[in-house]
Amino acid sequence: MKIDIPEKKKLVFEMTIPIRWGDMDAMGHINNAVYFRYMETARIDWFTSIGFNPDPGGVGPVIVNAFCNFNRQFEYPGGVLIKTFVSDPGRTSFDSWHTMERTDRPGEVCATGGATIVWVDFPKQKSAPLPDWLREIVGD
Known about the structure:
By secondary structure, the chain is α+β, with helices and mostly antiparallel strands. 18% of the residues lie in helices and 39% in strands. It is built from 2 helices and 6 strands, in the order E-H-E-E-E-E-E-H.
């Protein structure tokens, strides 16, 4: 199944994650919870790639919701190509989106997911405005 990301979503990052034996469940396919770990890894690696490292004593991203749609199974062995997209920047938040496809079957999307990310001042435990440098990246 090929799933197209609407144009308003901006591709910002791609990475490949190897499927580990321990990612599987008793049914012989990747456990549902692991998909969320894959998306988390892509988000953190994207932030690192743009020069931001989360700092619990400062400001940074917090996920306020997350979802995943499962289209096809991933099985071991193999690799997952994750593409990360962003959209809809607000004053303190933006949306992230992910497609996950098998590396040995380009274009075959096995899962899609995403999250709303809120920028937070951690010491104050309050949302904070998106920094200009980030707004430039996630904006149109």
